[in-house]
Design a protein that fits this description.
- With 265 residues, the protein is an alpha/beta fold.
- The chain is built from eight helices and nine strands.
- 37% of the residues lie in helices and 20% in strands.
- Strand 4, helix 3 and strand 5 form a beta-alpha-beta unit.
């Protein structure tokens, strides 16, 4: 059975982070293993405000040693709480020769507006993104990595993708989401030479919690199964479209996407 590692945070509400990653791996027939580096809580008495609780780096390292001793076919990262953990993730890729690494450069929690730790942005950009097989920023994260103005058009996505590719990743996938001026939900893949568009129905819903985590985990699952990057992204695009279609409200604040069991073919 194919195996994948996720280094990410725990979403106490169960919709994103490690929880979304492991559900996605399971749905796509991949054995998932997880290294927690932070725990995210939500305060129901303060409008679901997020609290971020980092785990000691030595504990993260011990988890990784456990997992990597078994061997992995792919890995992905999500929320990384400190510069030290970002460095650790980069070291894993280098030391173990990971050739299928999906970097989801998480910078904010869903429902929050500020970059969690500004110093992490530089560490992601300079240390981890260059090691990625695929880096999967949303529009906000892409503008941060590309040091550009907010992205609202397809041409601006292409410019940002070029800038991010110069950092060193093999592929850049920018997710258009609801912020792009386009009638479809458009994502843009760039390999340094060619752009490939992935389009799907744009759904009018607020229930998208965990969408980014699920999308990047689905790409990692495809890579673990030996798919090419383009094939893995196409698989993941179909998977996340259905996950959003089947999303549901957890409470008045959030609605998670639903990872449905599916074929990897």
């Amino acid at each position: 059975m194919k195996k994948a590692l996720t280094i990410a945070g725990s979403d106490t509400s169960g919709g994103a982070g490690i929880q979304a990653d492991l559900k996605t791996f399971h749905a796509l027939d991949v054995y998932g293993m997880s290294a927690l580096n932070t725990i995210v809580t939500m305060d129901p008495d303060r409008g679901w405000a997020h609290g971020v609780h980092p785990i000691p780096t030595e504990t993260v390292k011990a988890q990784l040693e456990t997992i990597l001793s078994t061997g992995i076919d792919a890995m992905k990262t999500g929320m990384l709480s400190t510069v030290e953990v970002i460095e650790l993730a980069a070291e894993v890729i280098e030391k173990y020769g990971v050739h299928r690494a999906v970097i989801d450069p998480v910078m904010v929690c869903k429902g929050e507006n500020d970059v969690l730790h500004p110093e992490n942005k530089e560490a992601l950009r300079d240390r981890l993104v260059p090691k990625a097989t695929v880096v999967t920023p949303n529009l906000f994260e892409a503008s941060q990595l590309a040091d550009s103005e907010p992205i609202t058009t397809l041409e601006e996505m292409k410019e940002a993708a070029r800038s991010i590719h110069h950092l060193g990743p093999s592929y850049v996938l920018i997710k258009g989401g609801s912020g792009l001026q386009h009638e479809q939900a458009v994502d843009l893949l760039y390999d340094g030479k060619e752009f490939t568009l992935f389009e799907a129905e744009k759904m009018d819903t607020d229930w998208t919690h965990g969408a980014g985590c699920t999308y990047s985990a689905a790409i990692a699952a495809g890579l673990a199964h030996g798919k090419s990057v383009e094939e893995a992204v196409r698989l993941a695009k179909d998977f996340i479209t259905e996950a959003i279609r089947n999303a549901f409200p957890l409470n008045q604040y959030v609605g998670p996407v639903r990872q449905m069991k599916t074929s990897v073919d």
